[in-house]
From TrEMBL:
Catalytic reaction list: a plastoquinone + NADPH + (n+1) H(+)(in) = a plastoquinol + NADP(+) + n H(+)(out); a plastoquinone + NADH + (n+1) H(+)(in) = a plastoquinol + NAD(+) + n H(+)(out)
A biological process from GO: electron transport coupled proton transport
One GO term describing the cellular component: chloroplast thylakoid membrane
NADH:quinone oxidoreductase/Mrp antiporter transmembrane domain sequence ranges: 1-113
Every NADH:ubiquinone/plastoquinone oxidoreductase chloroplast chain 5 C-terminal domain range: 120-353
Identification of the protein by name: NAD(P)H-quinone oxidoreductase subunit 5, chloroplastic
Similarity field: Belongs to the complex I subunit 5 family.
TM annotation in the entry: 26-45, 65-84, 96-119, 213-234, 269-287
GO molecular function, one term: quinone binding
InterPro entries tied to this protein: NADH_UbQ_OxRdtase_chlpt_su5_C (IPR002128), ND/Mrp_TM (IPR001750), NU5C-like (IPR003945)
Keyword GTP-binding attached: no
Length: 359
């Protein structure tokens, strides 16, 4: 959206979206780090597992503060009022109609896609149940136990000391001490000294991050709530951001003499918010907890019978899913035509050099 606004000559909108987008994205990145940190208490240090959304789910019960702030950043990025990105994104969408209907259609379509994939992330991570306890890593046997988990270093096995199996309470710090080497102590100088830092415990469920991680997330959440007010014209003198950027030129708005009033703004905002909610609805229908989705599919199956049209529709949906999963087959195209062509040319050159020139 920022590049689109710059290309249209709407420099103020581009800089405004740079500011609002920065706070929302930073909030989401730090929230993702908090989620990964909480998952590592269950699966250990394993990026392939702690960053796998297929093993997450139901984290809203265990990390509620991270959940609230992550939802805040998600709604902002989707363009839901009155959060930060709504004001800048809506301004760019309206400017796109003034510049070119083609750019406007592309921009509004991507707005719906943004709402779809962002709420897909939120639903798979925070809603439903924690899937790591129901995941089969080994393919049968005892690992079908719902309390199966992963040790600190990713080894397979059932955690016999699970608090769910033994009815014992877990300790925040383990009793086993792992002393740090003296050279390691000299090399690592933490900004904040944390007591018993060397103690490590494996838990059956994730837990909320400490205040060191939650404080910047909370601050970014406040900015996500209120930073959009920089670009809102509360009076006839204009907004704060326009005063800051007064020397800069805005080519697109120089061509349009009429200024948009609040009635026109609300009318345009309804369409952009509706598209965002449509993307959220599709994501909720496809990725909400499985027990709710089964009810929806049962309702659909009661109206749509398994016939030739239904089979054709299923094939179309599967084709769209495969196309999306394989990134529109762009990598396959590059591999076969560009990489394959260059390798074929190299083999031909090698053959020509060895057999023709050298004889």
């Amino acid at each position: 959206y920022m590049m689109l606004a710059l290309g249209m000559g709407s420099y103020r909108s581009a800089l405004f979206h740079l500011i609002t987008h920065a706070y929302s994205k930073a909030l989401l990145f730090l929230g993702s780090g908090s989620v990964i940190h909480s998952m590592e208490t269950v699966v250990g240090y394993s990026p392939a597992k702690s960053q796998n959304m297929g093993l997450m789910g139901g984290l809203r019960k265990h990390i509620p503060i991270t959940k609230i702030t992550f939802l805040l950043g998600t709604l902002s990025l989707c363009g839901i009022p009155p959060l930060a990105c709504f004001w800048s994104k809506d301004e760019i969408l309206n400017d796109s109609w003034l510049y070119s209907p083609v750019f406007a259609i592309i921009a509004w379509s991507t707005a719906g896609l943004t709402a779809f994939y962002m709420f897909r992330i939120y639903l798979l991570t925070f809603e439903g149940h924690l899937n790591v306890h129901f995941q089969n890593y080994g393919g049968g046997g005892k690992q079908q136990n719902p309390f199966y988990s992963i040790s600190l270093w990713g080894k397979k096995g059932i955690k016999e000391n699970s608090c769910l199996l033994t009815n014992e309470s877990t300790y925040f710090f383990s009793k086993t001490k792992y002393p740090i080497d003296e050279n390691g102590r000299k090399m690592t100088r933490p900004f904040i000294t944390i007591a018993h830092f060397e103690h490590k415990a494996i838990y059956s469920y994730p837990y909320e991050s400490d205040n060191t991680m939650l404080f910047p997330i909370f601050v970014l959440g406040l900015f996500t709530l209120f930073v959009g007010s920089l670009g809102i014209p509360f009076n006839q003198e204009g907004d704060i951001l326009s005063k800051w950027l007064a020397p800069s030129r805005n080519i697109l708005h120089q061509k349009s003499n009429n200024s948009m009033d609040w009635n026109e703004f609300l009318k345009d905002a309804v369409l952009s918010v509706s598209i965002a909610y449509f993307g959220i609805f599709i994501a909720s229908f496809l990725y909400k907890p499985i027990y709710s989705s089964l009810k929806n599919f049962e309702l659909i199956n009661s109206f749509v019978k398994k016939g030739p049209k239904r089979v054709l529709w299923d094939k179309i949906l599967n084709g769209i899913y495969d196309w999306s999963y394989n990134c529109a087959y762009i990598d396959v195209f590059y591999t076969r035509f560009f990489v394959g062509g260059i390798r074929g040319l190299a083999e031909f050159t090698h053959f020509f050099d060895r057999r023709v020139i050298d004889g």
